[in-house]
Amino acid sequence: MTMLRDIMTNNVDTCTPNDNVYEVAMKMKQDHVGAIPICENDKLIGMITDRDIVVRGVAEKRPNSTPVQEVMSDQLFTATPDMDVQEAAKLMAEKQIRRLPIVEGQKLIGIVSLGDLAVHTATEHQAAIALTEISEQPQYHH
Length: 142
Fold this sequence. Notes:
Blueprint (H helix, E strand, L loop, with lengths): L20 H11 L3 E6 L2 E7 H9 L26 H11 L3 E6 L2 E7 H6 L4 H13 L6
Antiparallel strand pairs: 1-2, 3-4
């Protein structure tokens, strides 16, 4: 049985709730990612995605200097490093999410994306199902 700790990305770049949208966008560009976890004192408090920036930032005519906390998602689903990969794929499909922060307590220690699940051959089928279900209903993307 493969656990998330075996496939998660460990060195996750983060921002604080006081960083601004421009800084986050530049970090996304630099890291080639579409989401950045938001942490305060090592505690995961939110996530901001490229979609959040567009929908809650640009489309609402907010300036680039807008603090991240005004556009981030703060209703998160998380997992622990000991969660089974199939269980994570099921959670991601059911909750319509593409990225799953991995926490110990409330401290962020990694992240697993749908792509990570797809790369792992044991979960290829579950990742395909998750992608199909996530693509059908856009309510809870983060």
